[in-house]
Amino acid sequence: ASPAAASPAAASPQPLSADKSESCGAWAASGECEANSGFMLRECETSCAARVRDMKTVSRIAACAAWKLSGACGASAAFMARVCSGTCDGAAAPAPADPPAGGVAQVHADDLSRQQGTAAGEAGEGGEGEPAEAEGGAAAQLGEGSYRPGPYQLDDGTALDEQGFQALAKSKAGVMVNFFAPWCFWSQKLVPAWEAVGRRLHARAYSQSFAFVRVDCTSAKGRDLCRSHSIHAFPTVRTYRGSVHAFEPYEYGREENVIWLHMVKIAAEVVVQRMHDVPAAEREGFAEQITHISADLKAAMERRREGLDEDWSEDALGPEEEVAEDRELLAQIDDAASSILAAKGVDISHILRHAREAGSEGAEARAVRDASSDHVLALLADGAKQPSPLDEDGSPLEMWEEEAGHEGCNLFGYVEVSRAPGTIHLAPHSSRHSFDFSHVNTSHHIDHLSFGLELGAIERRGLPPDVRKHLLSLDGRAFTAATAHLTQEHHVNIVPTRYQPAGSVAHVETYQFTATSHARTKDTLPSLLISYDVSPIQVNIAERRQPTSELVLSFCAIIGGVVAVFGIIDGMLYTGSAVVRQKLSAGKLH
């Protein structure tokens, strides 16, 4: 039905149509009346009418407002006039498009804004002179506001240089930036989700305070910018809060709704914090932004709690863990968007102005405050601070500081290997990143490297000095990569050693090793290699104590040997001298 033809029908209610499918009751119970309003109100009017009568007042008004936005005032005039009387004004919304053949149109609540953002971009590029109603769709859903987004333009990532990026970070409460390389497979794979989130953000009022940009690290401007921020892997996604010197790395899933969820949570914190930094008289200008954030946060977190938009990244929390981590947020955010929509004529600035004056907001404003997101509304109170996230040991987590430098890593651990030649390969690795080889520096310092079970200090002191020297051949040595693309390798020859102290039946098993180091340049990812080879020959060292009797016997043997030697020498001298005397006496020696 066209809008013109729908208005009379809305004014003169007709009997509701019966459900056209046996599944309508189950669909309505699962929330499809609100999520897929265009289809459900044409096929399942009776079930949706029964469902909306069971809703709370604020939820009913919110659902009616969402149906109005989707065009239900024109497409299901009888339903809207009977069940949602007062929601549709004289200008009925256009009818929604027919669902795709073969089933229910899967258009969820939080995806509706994405469609509106896409329509806004198409409207800006398309017909001239036509009102861009789609561009203000999000604002219309979340409340009557003044924000009207212009045509969406895809960011190609080549516009920002270092100076421009610093200016952007200072002017915005927060900036989420994607450092990418066009040749990188993972960067290419992220483009659709990143563009979709950018379109959704473009339709929100808080896009005035939160930027969502890309930087091409292969462009003339982006190359220097990426180098100054030590970007070595692509894509690298970071969030900056008012400064380029501190950032938070994004290490979650790269699906559209997962990125959207984390972006909205960060935007809620930075926008409210920015609001605290301005004089109280100027805070009313943030009302529309806070309204949009509260609704988006509620919708995104509700989907997450229901197990939708699963984050499959390695370090991601599961739905139950995330609910536990953000329990205050998740427990009280359920009706944030509904309550704000329900508060017709209640300006959010009332909350901003009287947040700490109990009972001064009026009944309607108090209802908004009680039902809305505590995560957002608690931040609205003057002086309220978002608690810092805590580490496992209870200490607050801090943002990474660029100036302090966070290059490299500390590696500690044990590796169990068979007694056969092998290699320990240390190199940067990520299942969803590509690396710039020229920026991978393999300089390293070896604090400790040993093989076999770690010996205690007493056991080490008991070993012979030559053995101790070869237990820690590489400890304390530093190796510097003077050129790019440099792979460094340590070749280790390991000799199993068994030492048995004197007077003890126990023995010490250890491994001596010698190491030779060298480096080579390759056009591959630089790495650090520790190749080892275990000798098939074992060195057995047994210490024995000599008995005193053996010492005395050895001493006597030595003395006896000395006496015997001197006796032989004396005999030789005596015999020689006797011969000489005989010859002298015979006159034969001249």
From TrEMBL:
Transmembrane segments: 551-574
InterPro entries referenced in this protein's UniProt entry, alphabetically: Erv, Erv_C, ShKT_dom, Thioredoxin-like_sf, Thioredoxin_domain
Keywords from the UniProt entry: Membrane, Transmembrane, Transmembrane helix
Methyltransferase as UniProt keyword: no
Thioredoxin domain boundaries: 126-269
Cellular component, GO annotation: COPII-coated ER to Golgi transport vesicle; endoplasmic reticulum
Annotated region described as Disordered, given as residue ranges: 1-21, 115-142
Designated name of the protein: Thioredoxin domain-containing protein
